[in-house]
Structures are given as structure tokens and as C-alpha cells.
Design a protein that fits this description.
Number of helices: 7
Structural class: alpha/beta
Strand order of the largest sheet: 3-4-2-1-5-6-7-11-8
CATH superfamily: Survival protein SurE-like phosphatase/nucleotidase
Largest sheet: 9 strands, mixed
Number of strands: 11
Number of domains: 1
Radius of gyration: 19 Å
CATH architecture: 3-Layer(aba) Sandwich
Strand content: 15-25%
Helix content: 25-40%
CATH class: Alpha Beta
Shape: globular
Length: 263
Amino acid sequence: MKPKIMLTNDDGITSTALWAAYEALEPIADVTVVAPATQQSAVGRSISIFEPIRATRVTLNGVPAYSVGGKPTDAVIIGLFALRLNPDLVVSGINIGENLSYESIMTSGTVGAALEASNQGVPSLAFSLQVEDQGDKFDDPSRITERFSDAKRVVREICEKILENGFPKSAHVINVNIPTPVRGGYEITRLAEKLFYTGVEKRLDPRGRPYYWINGPLREDAEEGTDVHAVQKGNVSITPITLDCTAFRAEDDLRDILNGMNI
């Protein structure tokens, strides 16, 4: 019997990149798509607790799938606990746009879905594809389908290895970022600190009232060994991530700071 994979994303169930991942995985696994009904980028690991969640069975590209009226985390929870899919692996992506560095994985809905799956005991991977123009993330991705060839190969090769050899014991999520194009090989990396130079652009509406866009250019590079540096070199970045956010190295400093508080 083939292993079972639940496939989700944060760009929405109609994303061309999601179905590119399906095409990559379908030959090696029984794949069930459970994905948000609409674009849900940058929602992180948020969850719907104040409104009902609808999961509608649909057929897209000739394939039965589940369209979830919620966030990526909602889609994972519905797939695991309502649909009872019991997958061997959860794959989130392929995301249009990089998910590199501390700041991106904390806000990424793609990574958020993978973290939720792992938190529920299912090994999970997140796949993201570099875009040369950040506007590509918000435009019709069908015009960049020629970039999916490398991405589909990477998704299939890494998932095959994980299904064959198992998941690393000390990791909860494997975060994979694929450059456009792939000019090198695979590289095991750590998270860089930043991906963007954060900025805010102020504008005025027709009534003269201010509103703001959060923006900022990508950083051109980062330290050797980081995910940002690897992708800039053209390597596929593979970063093991843990759910445990405890800063163990800060314990002694914290004890010193709180000295006298009966700790």
C-alpha cells in the first residue's frame, strides 16, 4: 500500500503551485488535498475559534479535494480530526514566495500548517518557492508554471527520502526553500535572522486621512550556513525546525536578572 499524504497550503486550494505539489506526490503516495478556500498568506498559526468552519468536498483538476473556509491551521485540524485522514505525512505548499529566516516562519501560513500537523503528532514538511519579484505572490501564479519543474522534483525527492528513512528525531518540521532556478544542490541550513528590511509607507486616502502599507526590500544575503544564504547561492535550503521555543541558553542570565526573587 502507498503511504498517505495530506496536502495543504496557505495560498488557497486553487493555487497552481499546490497542484504542482500534488502532481509530484501522487505517483508515490495516496494524496488528499485539504486546503483553505481562499488566499491565507501570512496568517501564521492562527486558528478560527469564534466562527464555524465549513469543509466542502470539491473536484479540481479532476481530483476530489476539500475546500476549507478557514485558515491553514484550520484545514489541518479538519483533515486530521473531522475527516480522520490519518496521514503518514503532511505536506504544506508549494508556497509562492520564500519562507526564510526567523521572521518569515513566524508569520507564514505555510509553515504554520506544518507546525500544527507536527503538534498533533504527524511528521510534516513545508515547501516554498523563491520568487524574483514579490509581486508574483499576488498575481496569477499560472504565468510562472515553468518554474515548477525544479520544485516538483525537490518535493518528490525529499518526501521519498522521508517516507523511506523516517523523520529526524529532534525536529518537528522540515522547512524547504527552493531557489529559482536551482543552480546548486541540497544544503542543510539554520534560520537567518531576517529576510526583509522592514518599512512602512504612508499614503493618504481621497479624504486626506493617512493609511499605511508595510513593505520593504529583501535582504541581499546573510551568513554562511543560513537558509537565506543557501537560496541566494542557488541551493535548496533544508532547515529542521522545532516547536519548542524555549531559549535554554538564556536560563542562567534570567536567573541572574531575577536574583533575589526566590527562584
